Amino acid sequence: MLEFDGLHKAYGSNQVLQGVGFSVAPGQMFGFCGSNGAGKTTTMRIAMGLARADAGEVRWDGRPVDEEVRRRIGYMPEERGLYPKMEVGEQLTYFARLHGMAAGPAARAAVEWADRLGLGERRAERLEKLSLGNQQRVQLAAALVSEPDVLILDEPFSGLDPVGVDSLAEALLEQCRRGVPVVFSSHQLDLVERLCDAVGILARGRIVASGTVPELRAAGAGRQLRVVVPQAPHGWAAELPGVRVVSEQRGDTVLELLPGTDDQQVLAAALATGPVTHFAWREPTLVELFRGAVTATPAEVAA
Amino acid sequence: MTAPVQTPSSAPTTARSVTPGTSPNSAAAQVRLVAGREVSTRIRDKGFLIGSAVLILLILGMLVFQVVINSGGPDPRIGVVGGDAAVGQALQAQGEGLGTDVDVVDYDDEAAARSAVAAEEVDAALLGPAGAQPELVLLRGDPQLEALVQSAVQGLSVSDQLTAAGVQLQPAPQVDVVTLAADSEDNTEATIVALVGVVLLYSLLILFGQFVAQGVVEEKSSRVVELLLATMKPWQLLAGKIIGLGLLGLAQMLVIAVVGVVGALAFDVVELPGQLIGTVLTVVAWFVVGYAFYASVFAAAASLVSRQEDLGSVITPASIVLVIGFVIAIQAAQDPSSTLATVTSYIPGLSPMVMPVRQAAGDAALWEVGLAVVLMVLAIAVVVRIGGRVYAGALLRTGGKVTFREALKAER
After folding, report:
1. Residue A209 distance to chain B (closest CA, Å)
2. Does position A48 have pLDDT exceeding 70, yes or no?
3. Minimal-distance CA residue of chain A relative to B38
4. Which of A85, A118, A179 has its CB closest to that of B2?
5. Does residue B40 belong to any structural domain of this protein?
6. Test the B interface: residue of A63, A97, A137 with most B CBs within 10 Å
7. Looking at the domain assignment, is residue B138 inside a domain?
8. Stretch B108-120: mean pLDDT, rounded?
9. Are residues B228 and B100 located together in one domain of the fold?
10. Residue B116: inside a domain, yes or no?
11. Would B168 be classed as within a structural domain?
């Protein structure tokens, strides 16, 4: 179990993290979302020892992450970085060795990972000669080459074309199947929704929502009902008790029901206006959940 | 990414299984890995290889130059027609006085001697030295040779006449040469060797100091430092870099030293090989201490900036100290006991260049050298400590220039 526990961090008067905590089980893919500047990168850098938390700690298997544990973590920093003038294969071997592999296995792993990420023919080329997309693959290979026990990836999908995204996603899922906990941050929420077993939403230095996507949906404020009644007059639902109209456009109505409101009464009211062509609970997308979580509770901001 | 990712056949299925061939590295192992990378990248760098070759060629060139200067042309060969053995002896004795070995070749007749001169088999031919009108045949005028022969013939004639007059000549007394400054000649030679050594030491300090500085900035500007520091502490990265490049610098210094010493002995440029080797070893030892000092200073300075373009502004102060030391060392070669040379030979940072010159000149007592070394080692300890903190504090702060003070205070 990889645990982030009560992380606090301030840069001067800027409180970046105010008690960030979540945990990732082995084999779980954890999507880390948040607006720009919410503190995702700082959280990951603390885990990698590149920033020091003012309070709180990161644990792996119950013990605080130290230098030795970190060598078993594959890391991809937000600011990509490798030696521009070093050959790809050599570079991968070097990072495998820094993570504790012996010379022979490190060289073999470098060849294997270059091949698996489609860099086989580029192995003898200097990194700077490669296209940006290929450099990104090398960066990923550098994180994976030592067969790490944990993966922490900061925006691994940014700058990849759709094919690249699929291939990276496949590689990460495979690591999960191996039993590796994977944490990655992303702005591409559709991707997070598709890939992740669990999601954490970071806002104002805290995790404002976390859990599986269905859990988040269940916890999401007020479920929404979409009713399409083409012949209904405008404002047909405005007077219904316990119902708030979210939007209405030519009979296509989205309603939010207060707790305890009977959806069958709504259906009856709808039928009274004429034919009903659509009547269904609407699953909020992660984007909507995110928006809700990030903008909700302004009282918390004041606190 | 076009290639579909295949499931590896060897992929472990359980969580936290230990990857084969993996074991936690010790701090020393990380330092070794970093040092190894520095050496292997640099050794394949074309610029470095060409630079090294040029340096060795320069040293060889200097040796050849010395040989040419010292020899001052080949020994003269003089053909003699007529006259007895005394003529040859007189010519050789005269040559010795001028510092050259004269070869005397006897010819039976004038024609043979003339054709030998024409064919440049001999430099000159002396005809009828014992006669009333001796003649010197040359291809073209050579005042030195003419003077030599003239004196020999004169001397011969004078002694002949004196003998004829019944005067018995006593051999002239040999003059015993005494120099007041004890073995000043040898020290001059050693000082020149030391000076050449210091030029080399200075060039290599600048060169490898630059390598260290560029390496630090390269890692910072390419952000690879984040990946590195996730697996090791800043001091391990710094130590590996300095040790790796230092070993390479030392190797280069030694190669040049060996080429220089072997070449000097082979060409017979020096008179006292023992002293030459001693001076060379002194310079090499001072290079090691000087490098440890300047590499740490350069590394700490370089860690303050994030772009190669900004490097000049932060390493200039240290470079200026190096240049000052170099200039003083050249001065010291002319006047090793001057106050300036004496004082600066103790100052850490300047001593690696000034002290070897004073040592070679025989001007520094053993305790003086010891004191300079102790001061230098203390300075290195301080520089490594402060420099290491600056380096660790500034390494992860990219963008813009970090001030010295900020870096010292910085906690990650």
Report:
1. 27
2. yes
3. A86
4. A118
5. no
6. A97
7. yes
8. 84
9. no
10. yes
11. no
CA distance B104 to B277: 39
Please tell me whether residues B155 and B206 are part of one structural domain: no
Q: Which token pair is B61?
A: 């060139």
User: Exposed e or buried b for every residue in A120-134, given b needs 16+ CB within 10 A?
Assistant: eebbeeebeebeeeb
Residue A136: both structure tokens together: 């990104």
pLDDT tens-digit profile of A149-200? 999 999 998 878 888 888 889 889 999 999 999 999 988 888 888 899 899 9
- Both B309 and B362 in one domain: the answer is yes
Map B231-243 to HEC letters: CCCHHHHHHHHHH
Is residue B158 domain-shared with residue B207, that is, in the same domain? no
Give me A6's structure tokens.
């009560």
Give B-chain residues touching A159 at CB under 8 angstroms.
none
ipTM (interface pTM): 0.79
Top-confidence residue, B204 or A300: B204
| CB atoms inside a 10 Å sphere around CB B165 | 7
* Number of structural domains chain B divides into: 2
pLDDT above 70 for B179: no
Task: Using pLDDT thresholds of 50, 70 and 90, give the confidence band for residue A204.
Answer: confident
| Distance in angstroms between the alpha carbons of the first and the last residue of chain A | 32
Are both B148 and B273 inside the same structural domain? no
CA distances from A259 to A224, A244, A263, B8 (A): 11, 12, 10, 51
Which CATH number covers residue B84?
3.40.190.10
Can you tell me the mean pLDDT for B258-279?
A: 80
pLDDT of residue A143: 93
| HSE value, Cβ hemisphere, 13 Å, CA-based, for B300 | 24
Shortest Cα distance, chain B CAs vs residue A159, angstroms: 12
Same-domain status, B188 and B153: no
Between residues B121 and B369, the one the model is more confident about:
B369
- Which domains are present in chain A? 2-211 (3.40.50.300), 221-283 (3.30.70.980)
**Each residue's pLDDT tens digit, B68-89:** 766 555 677 888 887 777 788 8
- Of residues B267 and A19, the one with the higher pLDDT is A19
Q: Which residue of A has its CA nearest to B392?
A: A50
H or E stretch covering A203: strand A198-203
Mean pLDDT of B213-225: 90
Choose from A93, A178, A180, A182 for mutation: most chain B CBs within 10 A: A178
Instruction: Please tell me the predicted confidence (pLDDT) of residue B20.
Output: 47
- pLDDT at position B200 over 70: yes
B356 and B394 inside one domain: yes
Where in the sequence is the domain holding B83, given as residue range(s)? Answer: 77-163
pLDDT at residue B120 greater than cutoff 70:
yes
Measured distance CA(B324)–CA(B27) in Å, rounded: 37
Based on the domain organization, do B318 and B389 belong to the same domain? yes
Distance (Å) from the alpha carbon of A145 to chain B's nearest alpha carbon:
11
Q: Which residues of B touch A (CB under 8 A)?
A: 1-8, 11-17, 19-25, 30, 33, 37, 41, 218-219, 222-233, 396, 398, 411-412
